């Protein structure tokens, strides 16, 4: 009897692939009002790779990733027209060439991009009502200039410098995060685990998946518009 392959099993929410609810206690978002906020606390969150700042603005609490050089008691300005490092401001008010993080995709969504430790984007150009951002992968994106961002570089940039050294440490790291590890190639597994599996001829079977098929049926394939050599 066959069983669900990995892609199908991960979507069922079973004990092996369940979400760690305690890791998502803190929601990253910007304060809804402008003014002077101060940092009440810098702490570690299990759901985030960077430390978080607890901001207090008129007794309203919000959380954002910490920037390099931040400290408890520091005052930052939300909505500053002439922002400095650590301030939260609109893209239209941020100087060109500034390093920024925790960018909003749409004005008011609280920050969705550039939130991992040590990362930052660069504001490279401003147009009529938009701003062009150079992302860490060297791609450029265009955002509304009313989107907000934080000036600076996210703290914790040394996180990836220390090697795991042993497979045991990597095992417990991945186990704590409920990650599937170690990963193996599809052709090495059993036939019941994957369409490419079994040892009879290491030939990966070519197929075209239906566009609306579930992940377990697509098995990593994307629906192509056409196949074969273009004539």
List keywords for this structure.
single chain; 231 residues; mainly beta; SH3 type barrels; six-stranded antiparallel β-sheet; four-stranded antiparallel β-sheet; 8% helix; 22% strand; globular
Short description:
It contains three helices and ten strands, in the order αββββββββββαα. It has about 230 residues and is mostly beta strands.
Task: Describe what this molecule looks like in 3D.
There is one protein chain. The protein folds into two domains: 1-17 and 180-231, no CATH class; 24-151, SH3 type barrels (Roll), CATH 2.30.30. The model has no long low-confidence stretch (mean pLDDT 86). The protein has helices at 6-10, 167-176, 215-218, and strands at residues 35-43, 52-57, 60-65, 75-78, 88-90, 99-101, 121-126, 130-134, 140-144, 148-151. The strands form two sheets. Strands 5-10-6-7-8-9 form a six-stranded antiparallel beta sheet, with no helix packed on it. It has a four-stranded antiparallel beta sheet with strand order 3-2-1-4, with no helix packed on it. Helix content is 8%, strand content 22%. A hairpin with a 2-residue loop joins strand 2 (52-57) and strand 3 (60-65). The protein is built from three helices and ten strands; from the N terminus they run αββββββββββαα. The chain has 231 residues and is mainly beta.
């Amino acid at each position: 009897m066959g069983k669900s392959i990995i892609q199908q099993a991960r979507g069922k929410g079973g004990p092996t692939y369940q979400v760690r609810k305690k890791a998502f206690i803190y929601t990253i978002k910007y304060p809804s009002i402008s003014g002077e906020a101060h940092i009440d606390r810098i702490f570690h969150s299990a759901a985030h790779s960077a430390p978080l700042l607890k901001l207090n603005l008129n007794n309203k609490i919000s959380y954002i990733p910490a920037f390099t050089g931040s400290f408890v008691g520091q005052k930052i300005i939300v909505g500053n027209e002439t922002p400095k490092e650590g301030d939260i401001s609109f893209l239209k008010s941020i100087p060109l060439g500034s390093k920024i993080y925790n960018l909003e995709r749409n004005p008011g969504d609280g920050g969705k991009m550039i939130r991992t430790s040590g990362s930052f984007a660069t504001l490279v150009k401003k147009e009529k009502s938009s701003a062009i951002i150079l992302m860490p992968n060297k791609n450029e994106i265009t955002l509304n200039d009313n989107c907000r961002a934080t000036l600076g570089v996210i703290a914790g940039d040394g996180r990836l410098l220390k090697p795991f050294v042993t497979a045991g440490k990597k095992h417990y790291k991945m186990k704590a995060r409920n990650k599937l590890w170690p990963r193996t190639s599809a052709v090495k597994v059993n036939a019941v685990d994957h369409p490419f599996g079994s040892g009879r001829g290491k030939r990966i079977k070519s197929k075209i998946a239906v566009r609306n098929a579930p992940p377990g049926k697509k098995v990593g394939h994307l629906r192509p518009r056409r196949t074969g050599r273009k004539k």
